Every structure is written in C-alpha cells, then in structure tokens.
Amino acid sequence: MKQDWMKKGFKRRLVGVLLTTALLGLSVVGCGASKEDTITIGGKNFTEQNILIYMMEDLIIDKTKLKVVTKPNLGGSLIVSQALDRGDLDIYAEYTGTALTVHLKEAPMTDPDAVYQKVKQEYETQKKITWLKPFGFNNTYTLAMTKAQAEKYGIKTFSDLVKQAPNMNLVCEPEFLERQDGYKGLQAAYGLNFKTAKSMDIGLSYDAVRTGKADVNDSFATDGRIAAFNLISLIDDKHFFPPYYAAPIVRDDTLKKHPEIADALNLLAGKLTDEEMQKLNAKVDVDKNDPKAVASEWLKAQGLIK
Fold this sequence. Notes:
2 domains, alpha/beta, D-Maltodextrin-Binding Protein, domain 2, 306 residues, 15 helices
C-alpha cells in the first residue's frame, strides 16, 4: 500500500512539474511574441535627443500597431552606438558627421549629401543598419561665448579666437575633449589652445559661460540656450566641423520584421529646420517644459499625429 501511495504521489508531482513546465513555456513564448511587436528607441544624454526619441515614439505608435519602449539619456555617442550594434536598441537618432568621424573613423567631409551617402552605405555594409531620411536640421558643433566678451576682443571667428584662447578657459562635454572632431581636431586645424579645458555637463557649461565662470563652451548650433543666454556662435571659418544632419537609424533585422517603421519615421524627413529645432530645444532647456510634451505638441501642430 505504501508503495502504491508513493507511486501515485510521484505521478502527481510529475504531472505538476510537467504542467508547470508547459505553462512556463507558454509564458516564454508569449513574452517572445510580445517582444517581437515592441520597438526600443534610445538616445544620447541631451535635450535634442530626448525630443527626437519622443517624436519617433509618437509616430510609430500613431502609424503602426507596434509598442514602443524608450531609453533616453543613455550616455555619449559610443555608448548609444554600441547599444544599437548589440541589439539592445532598435532605433536612435544619429548625426552624419558623428557617424563619419567617430564611428567609421573616416576623414571629415564638407558636402552634406556626400557625407550622408557615405555613412548610409558604410553602415549598411559594415553594421547592417539603415539610415532613414534626415529630419532636416544640421546640428553642427560650434564654440559659443557671450556677446559682450566677443565684442570686447573683436572675436567673430575661430581664427579670431586663437589669439585670445591662451588667456581663456574652455568648458565642454567630456566627449568633446577626446573626439577628433572636437578639441583635439581644433588644436590641429587652428592651433587653438586654451589656458584650461575642463569637462562639464553641457547644461552647466552654458551657465558657466553666461555667468563668467568660463569664457567659451562647446555648443550645438540648434541649442536654444545660445540666444536665450545672450551668447553668440563663432564662425568656423576653416570649415573644420563636418555637417551633422540628424536622421533615424534602424537595425536591418528590425526593419525586415517591421518595414512600416520606415514609412512612419520618414514622415519627419525635411520637416525640422535649424531654427525650428532650436525653438523646440529652448522650450525644454529655457522654459522647462517636458520634452515628451514638446514633441507631441509639435507633431500635432504639424498634422503628423492625431
């Protein structure tokens, strides 16, 4: 009798284990199927990237049946690029000049169309990543300082700055200090050498220049704080910086499964001018609006989403 009871108990436990395993299997399959319909969009750690993330999210949700997970403020260019390469992300917004000089390690080029075609071709060949159509704006690097100080020293161009730089302090994002299309490249191209060059969060660097704690900061042409803080962008008179046109880049395997993503995101092609992007950035950085709300309001105003 005891052996019969033990056999029956074993059978019940065995059936329980099999049922549990089967349910877990179904759960795993279910999660996998759900994940197949979920797109992950990431971005770098500054305002413009956040706005673009939420624009892309809203468009994909509005125009497709896909779900979207957003991962803003992941870090610098290399961190986000590697996340896309690994498949941790499906999409992010990259800049043509950054792709050319930082990720592909090619020499700078000045023609915007040539740069776009070059990175588009190389990314497809080397990385199996597709560049969709550019948003329209060119967020090139620049150097900014207060109008008052620029007028005091007669500085309008990078070449003008060379004479005064040894007596001035530069503050810039950490990445700018190391990139060849950053401070190192400027030193080689212009002979531009500051008294000190310190890394600082981009937001804090604008405050440092505005309040006189620093003289110059690296800046982005579409940053709304330039005008709001009464700063000026100096002219890159030797055309050192390549064009930095922003565009969505998407893993090929993601596009193969969901080609409707391209149709949705290409609705943004050519829609954002430098001035328009600067205004949107200012709404977040100066007026302290939520980037997700700024993105949604702009898309609705353009008739791109309901």
